[in-house]
Amino acid sequence: MANTVKAEVVVLGGGPGGYSAAFRAADLGKQVVLIERGTCLGGVCLNVGCIPSKALLHAAGVINEAEASAECGISFAKPKVDIEQLRSWKDGIVSKLTAGLATLAKRRKVEVIYGVGEFVGANKIAVRGEDETVVEFERAIIAAGSEPVSLPFMPDDLRIINSTGALALESVPKKMLIIGGGIIGLEMATVYAALGSEITIVEFMEQLIPGADLDLVKPLARSLKSKTNNIMLKTKVIAVTAKDDGLYVDFEGENAPEGQLVFDKILVAVGRKPNGKSIAAEKAGINVDERGFITVDEQLKTNIENVYAIGDIIGNPMLAHKAVHEGCMVAEIIAGEKVAHQAKCIPSVAYTDPEISWVGLTENMAQEQSINFEKGSFPWMACGRALSMGRSEGMTKLLFDPKTEKLLGAGIVGPNAGEMIAELVLAIEKGCTASDIANTIHPHPTLSETVMMSAEAFLGTMTDLYMPKRR
Ligand code: NAD
User: Phi and psi of 101, rounded to 5°?
Assistant: First the structure.
């Protein structure tokens, strides 16, 4: 017989969106049950995504920096990588954070039930874990996330992995093929290339990270070109044959090689798909579209009055910081606060080397949607701090509304681009103009000055470069 648990609020999924929603709802006085199918909280992001990848990218950065320091007269011997130690260091970071979440849940009296949850009625979710539990809820928040897309023609072979397999870091393959030149593919290319794998990347579209402007991607593409064996754009994999001595791959497209190439490992990083079809949503009458997304209104309510949904499962961009924002907001709505989804923009970051970040309007979007803009940009070649780091390849650009001079969008490529973008997210949220940014005193010497100088470039007031006055 299943146990029955009652919940004022049940949250299905314990990733960043789900646990944030649960914790916020509990802080606002609700009695909360949180269902998680894994063995600890944190979801993909903490366990097999953002955090372990950043740990490995840090290690890759150390290796790359040690190598690059030869240019300033400091040479190190070739690094010895103890893969087991690296893996356990990475796992230790994840465990510290997941243990912290378990403590936070306990302190808030959020009851966590581990097991796979599925709707079994309008107000019921059954959880199959060690025991079977039925949660009878007043309100539900679906935060069940997404999973990697797989390619249908791939053979069932342990040497073919997705992002979870890549982050498990079981071994460092000699020759690795990465299918998909998006954020996951390129972050993993950065890690495995630094660890010594010979990397080949195949990307279907005509540029890497197709969502970002080409001028931001170019410095990264140059850097990856020097660290990888081959990058094939406008090309795809059409067949893979698993043999004892390797994975034999056939390609098709503009840059496809003649004949097969052979690899020790293949990472498939061709996107993620929502988990909307795996929670039996139909049993509660919740609409799920054919791709698995759940449609919500601006208060993130589904077609069912007492059921909300947040994060990857409601649409792109599939980013943890978006899910967290939505989770907290839904908790506040459920607690009776009058709030709605009003974020003007959501930043994106590729934690590659160099990093790429962007927010708001991109030049590609402006062109597609015929949006008028004027640009101010600053090459890091003229930034003292960038040069003193040996990193002159970066660039900062700001897109402004020509009439109001308000910031519409921003893009940065270079080390720390991911940290720097936050200032511009705030600027867009607060409706800042070029003068607001240019007249804000930025510390010298920093990379952040390039933000101020890009605004000056737009206004024609810059002294650090000679740009004829334009207004
Ligand atoms: P993605 O959509 O960013 O990139 C997938 C890439 O694969 C695209 O460039 C696409 O054109 C290409 N592709 C698709 N099918 C292909 C094929 N058959 N052959 C060759 N190329 C093909 O997806 P991702 O990199 O897997 O990331 C998944 C999601 O996770 C994204 O929503 C991303 O934003 C998110 N994510 C974010 C971060 C971060 O914020 N730093 C990190 C990792 C993942």
Answer: -65, -40
The residues annotated with a catalytic role in the active site are 444
pLDDT digits (tens, 9 = 90+) for 124-160: 999 999 999 999 999 999 999 999 999 999 999 999 9
The predicted model scores a pTM of: 0.96
For a ligand 1 pocket test, name from 146, 270, 419 the mutation site with the most ligand atoms within 8 angstroms of its C-beta.
270
- CATH 3.50.50.60 range(s) for the chain read 3-147+274-334, 160-270
Phi, psi (rounded to 5 degrees) for 58: -65, -45
Please state at what angle helix 183-195 crosses helix 214-227, rounded to 10 degrees.
30
Could you tell me the distance, in angstroms and rounded to a whole number, from the CA of residue 287 to the centre of ligand 1?
26
Residues of the chain with CATH 3.30.390.30: 348-459
Q: Answer whether 326 contacts ligand 1 (Cβ < 6 A).
A: no
| Residue ID of nearest Cα to ligand 1 atom 14 | 270
Question: What's the confidence (pLDDT) of residue 115?
Answer: 97
- Max CA-CA distance within the chain? 79
The tens digit of pLDDT for each residue in 333-385 reads 999 999 887 799 999 999 999 999 999 999 999 999 999 999 999 999 999 99
pLDDT average, residue stretch 407-432? 98
The domain made up of 160-270 has a fold known as FAD/NAD(P)-binding domain (3.50.50)
Give, in order, the Cα–Cα distances in Å from 173 to each of 160, 161, 197, 234, 381: 12, 12, 6, 25, 36
Q: How far is the CA of 270 from the centre of ligand 1 (A)?
A: 5
pLDDT at position 261: 98
Pocket of ligand 1 contains residue 179 by CB under 6 Å: yes
For residue range 277-289, list pLDDT tens digits in order. 999 999 999 999 9
Domain 348-459, CATH homologous superfamily name and number: FAD/NAD-linked reductase, C-terminal dimerisation domain (3.30.390.30)
For residue 326, CA distances in Å to 291, 298, 319, 346, 421 come to: 21, 10, 11, 12, 20
Class of domain 3-147+274-334: alpha beta
Whether omega for the bond prior to residue 354 falls within 30 degrees of 0, making it cis, is yes
Instruction: Say if residues 125 and 35 touch (Cβ distance below 8 Å).
Output: yes
d(CA 199, CA 257): 15
The arithmetic mean of pLDDT across residues 252-278, rounded, is: 98
Binned at pLDDT 50, 70 and 90, residue 459 comes out as very high
